[in-house]
Design brief:
CATH class of the largest domain: Mainly Beta
Order of helices and strands: HEEEHEEEHEEEHEEEEEEHEEE
CATH topology of the largest domain: OB fold (Dihydrolipoamide Acetyltransferase, E2P)
Number of helices: 5
Number of strands: 18
């Protein structure tokens, strides 16, 4: 009996060791350098309302394809089979495909440009969130981030809380520019500073799988840095200290750093 218990214990220990080792291998595959934001993913290429996406199985995540070429991706969508993809992460869950099943992916530039201008009509409620404004679809179960906010117009709709018909232009993924509301042209740039959204916060610079983030300590926010400078950010990430950061919100929680501790970012040569 004791011998059986001993063997059972050995099997359990071996299984735990195997699982932990496997986890480390997966992490090593995904983390291929802090500023070279590349990743290998196994998943299915699918068509969505906004273009094309990757439904990842390993790792389990959904990514929006920015450099989609309908002619080259149609066969993969129709087959529904899993493929192995090498991608370059542009921001958040937005990626450019570099290889499919080991073969270089070279999309037709005309196809990408043609697919980038996508207008659509939807019925939804305008909402205000931490980083700006969103459209919560009622006719379609979607949430869009508004890239061209005009507070003078949108605040009234937020307070009203009623669904309106909105014409939007999809820029990338779920990021849109409003073209019209209830059939009336939407002002473009009338409020001046509405599209330049600056935020000052105390935060820690962190290094993650896809690059760098700013974790707010005075505000509960996490921003993805779109303009990383490893020579500057690595030191701050290693120190773990909170610093004053001025960021410009590009879309959603994606930002460009403007200054750190009152010094211009990226610093002038020789002042790093």
């Amino acid at each position: 009996m004791r011998r059986i218990q001993s063997l059972t214990l050995q099997v359990i220990v071996f299984a735990l060791f195997f699982l932990l080792s496997g986890t480390q291998v997966v992490r090593a595959e995904m983390k291929k350098g802090p500023h070279v934001r590349k990743m290998n993913i196994t998943g299915v290429i699918a068509k969505s309302e906004h273009g094309y996406i990757i439904r990842g199985r390993k790792p389990a995540m959904i990514m929006t394809i920015l450099n989609h070429d309908a002619n080259k991706l149609a066969a993969f969508v129709e087959s529904g089979k899993e493929v192995n993809l090498d991608v370059h992460i542009v921001s958040g869950d937005n990626v450019n495909i570099e290889k499919i099943n080991g073969e270089p992916y070279t999309p037709d530039e005309k196809s990408i440009k043609g697919g980038a201008v996508k207008n659509m009509n939807l019925t939804g409620v305008i909402g205000k969130v931490k980083h700006g404004y969103v459209i919560r679809g009622t006719s379609k179960s979607v949430i869009f981030t508004v890239l061209n906010p005009e507070p003078v117009v949108l605040d009234k709709l937020v307070e009203d809380g009623k669904a309106v018909e909105v014409t939007v232009r999809i820029v990338s993924g779920d990021n849109v520019n409003i073209q019209a509301i209830e059939g009336k042209d939407y002002p473009q740039g009338a409020s001046g500073d509405s599209s330049v959204r600056m935020v000052t916060l105390q935060g820690e610079i962190g290094k993650v799988r896809h690059g760098y983030v700013v974790r707010g300590t005075d505000k509960a926010v996490i921003f993805t840095v779109l303009n990383p400078e490893p020579a500057v950010l690595d030191k701050l990430a290693d120190s773990g200290q909170a610093v004053e950061v001025i960021v410009r919100i590009v879309s959603g929680d994606n930002v460009n750093i403007q200054a750190i501790e009152g010094k211009d970012y990226p610093p002038a040569k020789g002042n790093k």
